[in-house]
From TrEMBL:
Residues passing through the membrane, by range: none
Name of the featured protein: HTH araC/xylS-type domain-containing protein
PROSITE patterns in the record: HTH_ARAC_FAMILY_2
Coiled-coil spans in chain: none
Species this protein is from: Staphylococcus rostri
GO molecular function, one term: sequence-specific DNA binding
Domain HTH araC/xylS-type: residue ranges: 141-239
A Pfam family reported for this protein in Swiss-Prot or TrEMBL: HTH_18
């Protein structure tokens, strides 16, 4: 079942009783919305809850009314007839309603996702109860409390007059002036409302209900019922559940009309509700590889066997990666074949794959010969196992290597798997489609090199903002290349300093490339001359925020994900992992809530926060120190021991509501909900 949704287009002029359900009022009007319940005014919010049997009056020019019939609550064994409820977490309920309204507009009410949302909403709005007794200390509301407590009895003006020591005429005046309803209609309509529990929930016979509520006869009950419900009890019981609804003037429920309306999930842009729902975690994992740019070939020895900082050894790097040497292979090919083979052996005998630039097809043939010689030496003469299951990625520029020559490149040589990536940057820059001859080569990947893009824009003397270049590039990729086939080289050249200095914003922009991304280059150690490039380690050998972000993203590389507003969710074997990011300067509230009961009542939760304070070594170094190149190794190592994201562990009972994370500005947070 699904809530009935109505658009209220004008203020109500008369109070109405809420029968057999709960109503949620979602204001669409920027001006103040006032809801009167039992004569009391409520204002200052855009969301209100009207309980079963409440007398209500809504004063607004535009509001959505979500009617939740009692049958919905019955399925969850929630009693709405003997409890009053108040909204505990407004942002969570607003988010539920916004998503439900979107489901309604797109005719997706019967999907598993929509039904999970309904279940969550019902539990959320009934999470917190409050006493029937009114807090307002007035004679009228003391009388209302008395009427509710003695509704099975015969209550008359005379009874109230004696109980409260006031005249009957005074009581009549109180009801008419404050409730815009006479005393008889107030009590009679309330009694009919309360009788619906026996009629609808317990399916009692009409005669039994009349006796239970002390009506003089079944006929008298039928007369009263029809007066306020517009239908006899018998016909009401025979109505299909989806026909239970509201009968109010100035309301529209036509789906075509409601499609033209729009509501935001929250009125506060600094709040986001995160729904953990298995049915929504069905998008592809965020999986990509890094081309770890180690610079020229001379750096190979230093990075493969780091003498001091063992964590910089690439064999310890956790992410899917290639060692990327950014100079052409031709630079190491010399007349000394043995020297060349030794250099290649150092690459292939590591447990990490290798990416090499090729500018000459003759160099490829030399690599083949070197691999063959290496294979012969290892199998015949050296006391070590031959290299198998290694990967070699050849980065080819079509301006330098002929298409016909590329056809002769083998994809496997003695257990070394060879992939090719073709540079199509020029096609993008010139506004050209990729030729069929290039497709026919069946490359594993395509590359976009931003070292070509940025100078090209400068040569044209056109001002291209980051957003314009990003949009035009994604248009090109969408039209020419299959999903997840593109490698971005030197992409940090495109990013502005504002993006590079904000880890959360960098993540947000990077996620936009998700449909196209196969891999991306990242500098191994940040050069001192370039302050803003993306690197794994800074120039004093310490891990950067991008290193820690990569480790966090590893949790989303193997399992399906859900990509939501400022967050990603995945489910692992024994946990839910949630990555939150706040690219703004101000604090952002995230409400983590469960759609279904997937977790134990008391759930252990770990939180890792990554920003310029946690996970950035500069936060520990006084700003007066400008030159860090003279730091001794012992100090560098000590800094590395304290340079981590901030970790905390908490426990939460989701039966009490959403778990709230207050994420500082320009921060990323990894939340883990442990299922066992």
């Amino acid at each position: 079942m699904f809530p009935k949704i109505y658009h209220l287009t004008a203020p109500m002029t008369q109070p109405v009783r809420c029968f057999n359900g709960i109503i949620l009022v979602f204001s669409l009007n920027e001006n103040t919305t006032v809801v009167k319940k039992e004569g009391l005014e409520y204002r200052g919010k855009n969301l209100y809850l009207i309980n079963e049997s409440d007398l209500y009056e809504i004063h607004t020019q535009s509001a959505l009314l979500f009617y939740l019939p009692s049958a919905l609550f019955k399925e969850l064994d929630i009693d709405i007839f003997n409890h009053d409820f108040i909204i505990q977490q407004y942002d969570v309920v607003r988010a539920d309603l916004a998503l439900l309204f979107k489901c309604y507009q797109t005719c997706e009410q019967h999907t598993h996702h929509a039904q999970s949302l309904v279940t969550h909403l019902l539990k959320e709005v009934t999470r917190k109860t409050h006493s029937y007794a009114h807090s307002t200390d007035t004679t009228l509301h003391h009388m209302i409390d008395y009427i509710r407590d003695h509704l099975h009895d015969r209550i008359t003006l005379e009874v109230l007059s004696k109980t409260f020591d006031v005249s009957s005429s005074y009581i009549s005046t109180l009801f008419k002036q404050n409730l815009h309803m006479n005393f008889y209609d107030y009590t009679a309509s309330l009694k009919v409302a309360k009788s619906l529990e026996a009629l609808s929930i317990h399916d009692e016979k009409i005669k039994t209900v009349a006796e239970l509520w002390h009506y003089p006869s079944a006929t008298n009950y039928i007369i009263n019922f029809k007066k306020y419900m517009g239908i006899t009890p018998k016909k009401y019981k025979g109505l299909p559940l989806d026909e239970h609804g509201l009968n109010l003037p100035n309301t529209v429920s036509d789906v075509n009309t409601l499609r033209r309306l729009h509501i935001e999930s929250t009125s506060d842009t600094h709040k986001t509700t995160v729904f953990v729902d298995d049915s929504r975690i069905n998008a592809p994992a965020f999986s990509f590889f890094n081309l770890v740019d180690v610079g020229p070939y001379d750096n190979i020895d230093r990075i493969i066997s780091e003498p001091i900082f063992f964590y910089k050894n690439l064999t310890n790097y956790k992410l899917a990666s290639y060692i990327y040497i950014n100079e052409p292979i031709e630079n190491i090919i010399t007349d000394n074949a043995q020297e060349t083979i030794i250099k290649l052996r150092k690459l292939f005998q590591t447990k990490i794959s290798v990416a090499i630039k090729l500018t000459d097809i003759q160099s490829y043939y030399y690599i083949v010969k070197a691999i063959e010689d290496l294979h012969y030496l290892e199998t015949e003469h050296l006391p070590i196992a031959p290299v198998h299951d290694s990967k070699l990625l050849l980065l080819l520029d079509l301006n330098e290597i002929d298409v016909n020559d590329i056809k002769h490149i083998k994809r496997n040589i003695y257990g070394i798997h060879i992939a090719i990536a073709l540079d199509v940057t020029d096609c993008y820059l010139n506004g050209q489609s990729i030729d069929d001859d290039i497709y026919a080569l069946n490359p594993d990947f395509y590359t976009i090199d931003f070292e070509k893009v940025i100078p090209h824009q400068n040569q044209l003397k056109k001002y291209h903002t980051f957003k314009k270049v990003q949009w035009s590039l994604y248009q090109f990729l969408n039209q020419n290349i299959k999903t997840n086939k593109t490698i971005f080289l030197n992409y940090d050249l495109l990013y502005t300093p504002d993006i590079l200095n904000n880890t959360a914003l960098c993540l947000k922009e990077s996620l936009k490339s998700r449909p196209y991304l196969a891999g991306a280059s990242i500098t191994f150690t940040q050069p001192a001359a370039r302050k803003h490039n993306i690197a794994l380690f800074d120039n004093i050998e310490n891990k950067t925020t991008f290193y820690f972000l990569g480790v966090m993203l590893l949790n989303f590389a193997n399992y399906p994900c859900h990509y939501g507003e400022n967050h990603i969710i995945t489910r692992a074997m024994h946990s839910y992992n949630i990555l939150l990011y706040n690219s703004k300067a101000d604090e952002h509230d995230f409400y983590i809530t469960l759609q279904n009961e997937q977790l134990p009542a008391k759930t252990l939760i770990s939180t890792e926060i990554l920003n310029s304070e946690y996970g950035d070594v500069d936060s520990m170094i006084c700003s007066r120190i400008k030159d860090k190149s003279n730091f001794p190794n012992s100090l560098k190592f000590k800094l590395s021991q304290y340079n981590t994201p901030h970790l905390s562990v908490d426990e939460h009972n989701f039966d009490d509501g959403a778990y709230i994370i207050k994420l500082p500005g320009k921060s990323v947070s990894m939340i883990t909900l442990y299922t066992s």
